[in-house]
Amino acid sequence: MGLGTLLCLAALGGCRPDGAPAGSETSPLLIGGPPDTPFTLRQTSSAVGGPLAQGRTGDQLLSSDSVRLVIQQPGKYPGVGSFGGNLIDADLNRSNAPGQDQFGVLLPMVNVEWTVNGIELFAVKEFDPATFTPDGLRAQRITQHPSATEPQILISRGIIDVYDYLDVDFLEPVAKALTQQTLFFSPRFDDMTSPFRVYDLKDLSTEVITAYRLDPGSRAVTITTTLFNNGDAPVPVPVGDFLNGSGEVQLLIPGLGFSPPLTEQIASDTPAIIYAAMPGVGVSYGYFYDPREFADAGAHAQTTSLSYGGVTGVLLGEEFTKLFPIGGGRTPTIRFAVPPKGRRTFTRYFVVGDGSAGSVLDEGLTRLRIPTQPVSGRVVDAGGAPVPGATVAILSEKGRTIITYRTDGDGRFHGFLSTGADPHAVAFGNGRYTVRVDQAGYHVAGTDRAGNCAPESIDLRGGKAADITCTLGGSGMVAFSGVALDSETGSPLPARITIVGADPSPDRGAPGMFQDPAIFERPSGIVEILYLNAKGGIGLTDSTTLRLEPGNYLFVVTHGLEYAMQAVPVTVPDGGTITFPAITLPRVLRTPGWISADFHIHALPSPDSAMAPEQRALAAAAEGLDVLHSSDHDYLLDYGPVVASLEQRGFLVSGLMATIVGDEVSPNQLGHLHAFPLVPDPSRPNNGALDWSMAAQDTVGPDPDYIRSLNEIVDQLRHPTGGEKVIQVNHISDRATSLFLLTGLVTTATYRESHQVAPLSTYADPVGLRLPSVRAGRLPLSLDNGAIFSPAISAVELTVGPELNTNLLRESALPQWFNLLNLGLLVTATGDSDSHTPHSVPLGLPRNYIGSDIDPSDGIGTAMTELNPDTYARAINAHKVVISAGPMIQMEVRGESGAAGIGGVIRAPQSTVRIEVTAPEWAWFDTIELYANTVPTPVDDDGIGLLRGEAADPAHFHAPYHLPKYVYELRLRSGKRRGVSSAPWWRHHCAWSRTLG
Question: Which of 207, 606, 852, 861 lies at 20 to 30 Å from 104 by C-alpha?
Fold first, then answer.
């Protein structure tokens, strides 16, 4: 479905019953109050600051002259962290300057699906992981802060508990669905089978001691976690960590590159996890473990990792394919074991750097005692001038990125690389390397590179340091003449500029030589996407110049769906500057009484997005959105202060954009919901987001944990703060996160007679979804209990940006919505971008138009800040929504009793439907389709075989990653466009009417 395809979905039916008000809720602390130690934060102003800073009163601050780190106080928390006792904030010590924390959380992994619930924190003066006893540690607690020459040691005493955020056994159905291979996920790793009561794990003490040690002047905190065995035989148990970098950082695994493909990551060695900063960010992070603790007869033990949804699980000393054997039924191979009547400790080092990946590798290699040699160099332009901020990549002999360096103000870089002198050193490189350089806007003619390095290959095995000079190629400049303007009013318009062309020096490294492809991926033919602010500057700056590689481009300037585009050919000269002309954009669509919003946008608080809220706000304004929503995973982000700050700085035009706070409630076992509008509470974790993982049946310990039922989640979202709430099921055709697909929800009535399966039934066992068992007899289950489906859901998201060029909407999403309507569940259809990254899925496409009595851009009201959130939500729940990826629709149904528009209800034996569509020329369309009383029929995966194959049995709805497909009964009416009006070239229009009897 192309960008110009019309997505016009109007629910014609009755009204949704009014519901109780909603809000957000966070679970209380499980054990005691905040700890009282020498490191306890007494006021939030003393915590680590920055975009992702979570520290608050009662948390623990470790600080040296070099770094500042926060360990979260005991408690139960929403989102990735789940429990206290873990590292949540980290930054360089910036004295009195604002903090720049960009880190999410680091928490231990025990037996794959468990973590450690830190229930007690205290400080000690000394700690020896080989000889301490838990009781002895508690007796040694100190109340005075260590001196400047003493280490700071914080002890977290915890209990093995289920990791609530991820149910890792999803790997088994994923592997089967994606690779057709059976992956054996042993019951000893399944958190719903109580293996700590059944296997040899029963002898493992549930008490775990983790120590955080920060030495004076150090940039690394040493983390040691100790397990205890009470039995007479060794207890094999995989250990590791879950990490979430979360901020404006890029995942780099030395020797694999940036965000390597999943199949390569799980099959290869992970010697460390590095989070390299994005341009302009001044902090980076490194996670290193001591490989000697896992070595067998001196050999290096392979460590594997898996990244999903922004969370990386590291299995220390374990091979993924041996832990989860392919082929099924074989005993997993576990290397790590706790000895009889003994203990076993594993050690990690968490390093804070200055933004460069190389700055954390240097410290990590020192901690791990890896033999190294220095490498240094300089990056200059073709004229010999130094180039700051350039990226120098060090590649292995196999061409995979090991590390990158960022040049300083004098164009210099330096660091240390492994000489490959022993098996542990080889994990970081064998001593022979290739050097590459990259910097935006430079290109060596006749090559696919930004520059060349001399020497290009280095060998550090002979004991000599390497000195490198990298010279960049030609470069040109584009100077923008000013802000884009509305041609009618002369008002400034923040605008998107899409630079179309062939990238002369692409980052060809797979899976990423210089940067993270998961973040910076661009559609084919797109060199760059940038935004001009209301002052005419680029991005969130006053700069009006852009460095670009010499060549020919097409600059496409846009301001959302209601304006025409301007396409300007640009030739960038080598060594010169071209002036980009002033741009005016005509408004081509008028939508009085309809305001635009993208309900589903992610930013930094989401563990799988690296976009700063300020960048999101500018992009939303440039895309012409009237309302900016937050919808981060399990976090209530308030864009209000962000927009106000950008307006005050002149980057946005005041009063043109309202903000709404939402929460993508993300139980990954059940499927994702979006609730809005909500009220954030900055005094609570995650700004007061709902903790869906805290169920009444939960206990502190390794026994099974549960999540709230869908009814409980919806009730908690609707009640506490009052007001109208939209409860939306997100991306109903997404195989990994759809409530309908994860629960195997049978929405069709087709099987009522053939299989005696009523609609809104499921073959899913609630226990497998971390829900309490409600089985009374055989499957399928009726959903009357509200565990998996709730009639209080008011909207379904039928399509998102990544699906626009697929058939998911027609084959799966629309039919499921029709099924709900035919069952009398009149939920509103919506469409959003679900944008996580800046380029591959821009926000605002598709978007929703909502009926509104505030619409300043069309002369209704004076400012979008007058928008009432309750009225806004009420219009959405009343179905006054049009989804658009370009065209705008007006629709009227007229019968004997009168007329009704979108979202209205009319009852008549015969009615006339009139549809009027207007669109900018770039969003062309030639067909309007009208679906009346459609009854979708399930078909096989080929989309043809009626009730055959996968569609023959409703039990298949709960097959792993099964995506139901349908065809429609022959009640489809369609009509061609009757003609184009006499509108200017940049707009086309058609009207169409049919009488339905």
Answer: 207
Tell the residue number behind the tokens 């929405």, with chain if given: 747
Reference 283, options 351, 194, 196; nearest CA is 351
- Confidence at 991, pLDDT banded by 50, 70, 90: low
Helix (H, G, I), strand (E, B) or coil at 90: strand
Lowest mean pLDDT among 9-23, 112-126, 656-670: 9-23
Q: Whole-angstrom Cα distance, residue 471 to residue 444?
A: 9
Please report which confidence band the pLDDT of residue 11 belongs to, taking 50, 70 and 90 as the band edges. Answer: very low
HEC readout, 242-296: EEECCCCEEEEECCCEECCCHHHHHHCCCCEEEEEECCCCCCEEEEEECHHHHCE
Write the CA distances from 965 to 251, 737, 933, 936, 944, integer angstroms: 36, 17, 18, 9, 9
Return d(Cα 43, Cα 588) in angstroms, integer. Answer: 53
Predicted structure pTM score: 0.93
8 A C-beta contact, residue 117 and residue 161 = yes
pLDDT tens digit string along 386-404? 999 999 999 999 999 999 9
Task: Give yes or no for a contact between 126 and 146, defined as CB atoms under 8 angstroms apart.
Answer: no
Bridge partners of 110, per DSSP, are 114, 239
**Count of CB atoms situated within 10 Å of the CB of 650:** 15
Neighbours of 832 (CB within 10 A): 28
Cα angle 443, 449, 452 (rounded to 5 degrees) comes to 95
The confidence score (pLDDT) of residue 971 equals 46
Question: What are the angstrom distances between the C-alpha of 180 and each of 173, 931, 960, 961?
Answer: 10, 37, 11, 12
What average pLDDT is seen over the chain? 89
**Is the bond preceding 677 in cis, omega lying within 30 degrees of 0?**
yes
The rounded distance, in Å, linking the Cα atoms of 708 and 600 is: 23
Confidence of residue 779 (pLDDT cuts 50, 70, 90): confident
b/e code 460-491 from CB counts within 10 Å (16+ = b): beeeeebebebbbbbbbbbebeebbbbbeeee
Q: State the pLDDT at residue 10.
A: 36
**Alpha helices, DSSP H only, in 112-237?**
134-139, 171-179
Query: What was the pLDDT predicted at 350?
Result: 98
Q: Is the pLDDT of residue 36 over 60?
A: yes
Which amino acid is it at 382? A
- For CA atoms 812, 818, 822, 826, give the dihedral sign: positive
Q: Residues near 120 by Cβ (< 8 Å), separated by ≥ 6?
A: 31, 32, 35, 74, 156, 157, 158
Least Cα distance to 794 among 686, 712, 921, 880 occurs for 880
pLDDT at 997: 40
Q: How confident is the model at residue 177 (pLDDT cuts 50, 70, 90)?
A: low
**Whole-angstrom distance, CA of residue 136 vs CA of residue 225:** 16
d(CA 229, CA 201): 9
The average pLDDT across 943-956 equals 88
Closest CA to 109 of 221, 187, 189, 31: 189
Residues 330-343 have a mean pLDDT of 94
| Sheet strands (E) in 257-411 | 257-258, 272-277, 284-289, 304-308, 311-315, 337-338, 343-353, 372-380, 391-395, 401-406
Secondary element (H or E) of residue 223: strand 220-228
Sheet containing 551-558, strands listed edge to edge, beginning at the edge strand earlier in sequence: 526-532, 495-500, 551-558, 566-572
